[in-house]
Amino acid sequence: MILFIKLILAHLIGDFMLQPLRWVIHKESRKIASGFLYLHIGIHFVLMLLLLWDLSFWKLAAIIAVSHYLIDLAKLYASPWFRNRTIPFLLDQFAHIAVLYCVAFYGNLWEHTQQWIQQLDWALVTALVFVTYPSAIIMGKLLENMSDQIVLDHKSLPNAGKYIGIIERLFVLIFIIMDRWEAIGLLIAAKSVFRFNDLKDSNNRKLTEYILIGTLMSFGFAMLAGLAYTHL
C-alpha cells in the first residue's frame, strides 16, 4: 500500500504542483510537438524515483511514465470532441490512477482488488449515492409546483443550486457519521449568511419560503441517510 501512496503523491506533485498553466496551454496548442509534454513526463519519472528512493524500481517508473505520456496524448487529441472540458480531465485522471494501482499491486492485482471490493462499506456507499443526485431529483419533483411560481430577477450559474445542495448534504452526512451534530448547525448558519443578501435585496416572500423549504428538505434527506447508516 505504501508503494501506491507514494505513486499517488508523485502524480499529485507532478500533475498539479509542477505543471504551470502555460505548459498546459502550450500542450493543448502544439500537442505531440510540445516540448513541455516531454518535460512533464520527465518530471514524473524523476519524482517517482525520488519518492521511491530505490533504483530497482526504475522499470516501474518507466512504465508509468510511458503510460502517462500515452494517456496525456490521448487526452490532448480527444478533448475537442467534448463540449464539457471536465469530462476529458476526469477520464485522464482516472486512467492515471488506474495505471498506478495496477503497477503498485501487479503481483497480486486480482486478489487485492477482490479483497478491496469485499471490504467496502456498501451501506456507506449507498448513503453517499443517495444524498447526491437521487436526493436532488426527488427534491426537484417535490418542489416542482413551487418552483413554477418563482420569478427570478437575476441570473445564476447553471445547476449551481443542485451542486450546492449535493455538497451540503455530503457534509451533513459526514458530520452525522462523525457524530458532530454541532457542525451541522454551523453549516446552516453559514448558508443563511450567504443567502441573506439575496433574500433581502429581492424582497420576495415566495422565494424566501421556497429556499427555506428546499434547505430544510435537503438537510432532512441527509439526516435521514446519516441516521439510517449509523443505526443499520
TrEMBL record:
Domain of life: Bacteria
InterPro entries per record: Phage_phiKZ_Orf197
Record-linked Pfam families: DUF3307
Swiss-Prot/TrEMBL keywords: Membrane, Transmembrane, Transmembrane helix
This protein's record includes keyword Transmembrane: yes
Bilayer-spanning residue ranges: 32-51, 89-110, 122-143, 170-190, 210-229
Entry annotated with the keyword Protein biosynthesis: no
Protein name per Swiss-Prot or TrEMBL: DUF3307 domain-containing protein
Organism the protein comes from: Poritiphilus flavus
